[in-house]
Design goal:
DNA-binding; 3 domains; 6-stranded parallel β-sheet; 340 residues; elongated; homodimer; alpha/beta; 6-stranded mixed β-sheet; Rossmann fold; 12 helices
Chain lengths: 340, 340
DNA sequence: CATGTTGCTGTAATCGTTTACATTCCGCGT
DNA sequence: ACGCGGAATGTAAACGATTACAGCAACATG
């Protein structure tokens, strides 16, 4: 109940018998002061219980002390590990990590609210829908290299980005199915217009061509990374005249929905049809059947994105500007795939 | 590339031909100025593109302009919807939402780093492990009613909290299984010492007693809400002499792990054994078999927690202080349960 | 001994708001 | 005519840090 009296830098200065400037210097650059002074200051800080006031520091230093993470949908578990990685990556920096959900409000409003308001120093975006004019405008104002895209990216702009090897992943999946003897391979895509959808679909089709496998238009099934879209895809497959023997899904969530629908329709996975996912979220290993999938290290993607942004914010600006990192993928063979 | 010149309040004042005080007043309390003045100021703001500098405002008003959400493990999808709810709940306020993962660093360090540093005005904690002395110390410093617990809570302290009807949920589960003819009902718990573990286990046992159902010590299986712990529990059950015919799990994740392990061990769910979960995360509906579970509206829990905290921060302090809200639960009957 | 150099430290301006207090203006009652 | 009250506005002092600049030893150099 006792109201705490705020300890200011001047209190520390008094306690240590030095000036405020010396205290400030001791904190930001300890080597510049005498050893005796340094010790006196640290002792005074300890005694008084001083903690630097961020608002004051931020005001003076003209920064926000925070970064924003733009998440397409916080409700989607796919993003949680990425968030964890980003959060870990900013551990030890004195930047706070803010989050905003782009599901409801459009990104432009958010960008305006945060960037222009000076509430943030930089941003990691997991959402490529957020682009266009507003981002270009921001970029023109010089914040362009304090923006990093993770997982997704924007095709024609050149912001820094971290992504997994989407093409390699698609190839791994197709090659593996091919090796199992599958010829009729379908693909459950992500949402229309999405860069990941495009990258994975194109790579999948290229590999299918390379291996001289048959292709039918209805084998490219439009999804949107969601459970429900996978479930719906199952209905379409069940109704097909030329039913594929394997399906490569652009996301694990889609694969779960698909399997659930296929099983409900009386098919057995993998006996009647093989399913392979993309992402390797925690649950994949414990699904029934355990999901064969392409693993992308989501935590590492988050950490790397954080690293890139920190380099821009803390280091010499321009160091890591607009660089692009790619994280390798891995085929996780489990029980949802089998011989044709 | 053009560096933006920052527009200050004084620039607006000049443009509108008034003083800075008037501009500030117009912004914070429009009714107090003349209509003509107000319009002139708004016009000047529009023309200059002025945006208030949060750091300066925060410094002057002695606040942080942010709230912290303490998440036990960001990697766990269970929390994502709660986060989404909290995030939505703070939409439109001028508080930023920060997140911190308590998985690595202990809460005390985090609380210190954030609360004492004045980086936040309030906090929503999803982690009850964070309690003890540090929290008591904070509470003594008067921030006690700017702390809200969601999902979990601390037994002996009285902070505001939002929780689901854990007891009612456990009863629903047991009654349903009982109605299906099950007598030998086991329970997969949460981690030791956790309030949810305790609440659900006690209620489950009480209901079992009330219905005069048999109980064996090995039918209470220690878990920790994780997939892996559920999988491990399956091994134990498979090895039991007196095997239960149904298992009530304290979490959906545990239930998934359990089913995955039971199936791997040659059992069929629900023919050989019924499994019921708790939470109803998105995936439950699409698991194979679709999981019968107790649904708690996680988004609503998050929104309610946000609401409580906002009331404390924005309204007259003490309004919603230390209040406790309970969110109802619902039995979702699906395919993982069947007659004994 | 004057002078320049080096190395710490202190003084005070600054960051951009909010707001207590002072001021001005105007209408109105006596 | 005078003073008074109240509304609208202005002036300037905070808020609590950082840092340019100045000051001051101590010391080496010529």
């Amino acid at each position: 109940m006792t109201q705490q009296k705020p300890v200011r830098i001047v209190d520390v200065a008094r306690a240590a018998g030095v000036s405020v400037a010396t205290v400030s210097r001791t904190l930001s650059n300890p080597d510049v002061v005498t050893e005796t002074t340094r010790e006196a200051v640290f002792e005074a800080i300890r005694v008084t219980g001083y903690r630097v006031n961020r608002a004051a520091r931020n005001l003076r230093m003209q920064r926000a002390g925070a970064v924003l993470v733009l998440v397409p949908s916080l409700g989607n578990p796919f993003f949680s590990q990425i968030l964890a990685g980003i959060s870990a990556g900013f551990e030890g920096s004195d930047y706070s990590v803010l989050i905003a959900d782009t599901a409801k409000h459009d990104c432009n409003a958010i960008l305006e609210r945060y960037f222009l308001d000076g509430r943030i120093d930089g941003m990691i975006s997991l959402d490529s829908r957020c682009g266009g004019e507003e981002l270009a405008k921001l970029s023109a104002q010089g914040v362009g290299d304090r923006i990093v895209f993770a997982c997704e990216w924007i095709e024609d702009a050149d912001f820094a980005s971290v992504r997994c090897d989407n093409e390699g992943g698609a190839r791994l999946a197709i090659d593996y199915l091919h090796g199992l003897g599958h010829r009729a391979i379908a693909h459950l895509t992500g949402p229309a217009g999405n860069v990941l959808t495009h990258a994975r679909r194109e790579a999948m089709q290229a590999e299918r061509r390379r291996l001289d496998l048959p292709a039918r238009p209805e084998w490219i099934i439009r999804g949107d990374f969601s459970l429900a879209s996978g479930h719906e895809a199952a209905r379409q497959i069940l109704a097909m005249e030329h039913r594929p023997t394997a399906v490569f899904c652009a996301s694990d969530m889609g694969a779960f929905g698909l399997i659930s629908g296929l099983v409900a329709g009386g098919l057995d996975v993998p006996r009647d049809i093989s399913v392979i996912g993309f992402d390797d979220i925690e649950l994949s290993e414990y699904y029934v059947p355990a999901l064969t999938t392409i693993r992308q290290d989501r935590r590492r993607i988050g950490e790397t994105a954080a690293e890139l942004l920190r380099a821009q914010l803390e280091g010499a600006a321009g160091t890591a500007a607009r660089s692009r990192r790619q994280i390798g993928v891995e085929l996780m063979i489990r029980q949802s795939t089998g011989p044709a």
